[in-house]
Amino acid sequence: xxIDNIKSLLMKGESIEHIAESLDVSTTAMYRLCHIHNIDFxxxxxxxxxxxxxxxxxEKEAKRIEKIKIRKEKRKKREKxxxxxxxxxxxxxxxxxxxxxxIAKMRRDGATYSEIAVxxxxxxxxxxxxxxxxxxxxxxxxPPEDFNHKRPPNPDVTARREKVAELRRxxxxxxxxxxxxxxxxxxIRQDLETYNRDSDNPITPFRVDxxxxxxxxxxxxxxxxxxxxxxxxxxxxxxxxxxSRIYQILREASW
Length: 255
Known about the structure:
By secondary structure, this protein is an all-alpha fold. The protein is built from twelve helices and no strands. It is elongated and about 135 Å long.
């Protein structure tokens, strides 16, 4: 290896020991060689270190500048997003105010909460809340809807109640009426209660008639059949009584 190569290795930051090891010579011989050829390895090493330090400083400065650039880009992006967000919020606020004014105008024109709710795809409760908030900040309040007024009767429900009342006047039980009208016994009871409340000629409510009466022998048979696995509906159909009567018999028997 020539002296120039040794100098170049020293400039690159290689140590005397490492160069001596690569040339398979002793460190002392390498120091003598540098002394003979007037190679200032210490100055070269210091110069190499200073060059590396300068390069490191340049790299750090470049990284710092890159970080500042990235930070500025993020700040610009964030400011742009915030500006768009504020713009969207302002647009939504204006749109909401316009919608509230339209809802208030519809209510002043006589529209019900249900009609307003259908048009704006809201619930009636939400419409009520919107108008309540509107009245707090408005000089001209909107009249609230009166929920105490009677709704128009449903013609189908009215016809069914009249039919149930006619069948009850003929002496049929609740279960027999339920079979004919194909509705539950609970609905039959409600219809008769509503009919008696609104009618001038009320009907005597059905309690227990001959068909609902079951003697002790039949009660014992019901309990035995239930123990064997018979269902409540099967027992009610067999003895021609409602299912609640079967439940009552089973409770009386401590089943």
